[in-house]
Amino acid sequence: MANDHLHLQADQLYPFDARGVARRFRHSAIFGALDSLRPGETMRFCNDHDPLPLLEQLRTRYGAGVEISYVSRTPGEIVIDFARKG
């Protein structure tokens, strides 16, 4: 109950801009953020390149538990929604 204020609604969208995270920490930070999501919540991920190796790692780790949807594929600004499934 002490953490109820951190999750205001089940369909909350949380931004994650990987461009500000040192490359050596990015994957760990992304996995940590995804592990923190509750079913129905989405992390909107922004990066400077298309993270194809990361997407394969996510599919292996989470399977159907995380839906991956591209929002934008603009060069220098790739935006992907990672939605946690219940």
Structural features, described:
With 86 residues, the protein is α+β, with helices and mostly antiparallel strands. It has a single domain, classed as Vaccinia Virus protein VP39 (Rossmann fold, 3-Layer(aba) Sandwich). Helix content is 29%, strand content 33%. It is built from two helices and four strands, in the order E-H-E-H-E-E. The protein is globular.
Topology:
Layout: E1 13-17, H1 23-36, E2 42-47, H2 52-62, E3 66-74, E4 77-84
Parallel strand pairs: 1-2
Antiparallel strand pairs: 2-4, 3-4
How is this structure best summarized?
The chain has helices at 23-36, 52-62, and strands spanning 13-17, 42-47, 66-74, 77-84. The chain contains two helices and four strands.
Fill in the keyword field for this structure:
Rossmann fold; 86 residues; 2 helices; globular; single chain; 33% strand
Query: How far apart are the first and last residues' alpha carbons, in Å?
Result: 20 Å
| Rounded mean pLDDT score | 90
Rg, Å, rounded: 13 Å
CATH architecture: 3-Layer(aba) Sandwich
Strand order of the biggest β-sheet = 1-2-4-3
